[in-house]
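yo

u said u wanted the structure for the complex thing, so here. seqs first:
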Amino acid sequence: MACCDCKVDLIPRTASAVTNLAHLNECCKRSEDVDTSGIQHPHGPFMERAIYLSRVAGLEKRTGGCFGAVVVKNGKIVGEGYNNVISHNDPTWHGEVGAIRDASQRLGTPHLKGCVLYTSSEPCPMCMGACYWARIDKIYYATTAKDVKEHGRFEDEDFYEEFAKPPADRNIPALEFMREEAVKVWEEFGQLPDRCHY
Amino acid sequence: MACCDCKVDLIPRTASAVTNLAHLNECCKRSEDVDTSGIQHPHGPFMERAIYLSRVAGLEKRTGGCFGAVVVKNGKIVGEGYNNVISHNDPTWHGEVGAIRDASQRLGTPHLKGCVLYTSSEPCPMCMGACYWARIDKIYYATTAKDVKEHGRFEDEDFYEEFAKPPADRNIPALEFMREEAVKVWEEFGQLPDRCHY
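structre next:
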């Protein structure tokens, strides 16, 4: 990766990119970009990094589609990920899920408040859900769901349409079964004085 | 866990439950249940197993909320998971994501066609998205999104409402940035004769 103007080479490693970050974090502080809506982005290199990771996944290592993402906190990358669906036989290993898991491990918390996600593509519902559970502050994405359908036949857009239907009417029908038994567990949970919440 | 009538004890282990399955799979073939809509379920013990795993997560091991799930193929459990968000500082480790990842590893494919997911609660958007990417055939859930909001203050239902809004108007705003740069990667991807797809 050429890190903005300085062209320093950065080696991406999904779960252990710490060695690259000292340089990248310093370098990013010098950069400013303005997006199409006129918003000031002092962190253009973060999106460059996400797009670079999308290249690694789809073109270089061929681990999955062209999807990459980074999680940024206080101007520093704290997590990185790229699509590993094919390489790891894991349908959940999207770029954003990888970056969120990486950041959570590094920061030692499942909550990423104060963090911004930069992702090479508009998050699919799974990854958007991950952002909500992780309490991410804000998301910047590059390609749209329409773009990845056009160029890669990925169905992110279709899935969003599916989710607007009642569960039983979707292409994957979801049906209620044995509700009472499961509610009993929650009733016990509700009585725990020190029950977990997140 | 008491496996339906026979009461054989089964020890749940999220990523390595193989040793339990020989018994459970044989036993399940003998069981029949009918759900509230009158649908025949020859696999009631699969949902019992998912509910048992929800108990492990929320009440016994306290690894997270009361959420458990199993993936079933041809009448056999091929993946199990329960909520590990708190224990592993991983906001993506829901019961369903865990079960899908487990099944994918065991079957050696990111595609779970022919599989049914039994989950103790209606999947959140993240887990529903995981089901779509994994190409799950059908989902049975026990508690509803309303139930887990009432009993555990989990916001699955709110997240579904959020997803119906335009990306920039959500509680986590998602904004487009540097689209052209990312599209270039997809254009290169489109020219690969052996590009991956899933």
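Residues 44-60 of chain A form the longest helix (17 residues). Residues 1-20, 28-36 of chain A have pLDDT under 50 and may be disordered.
cya
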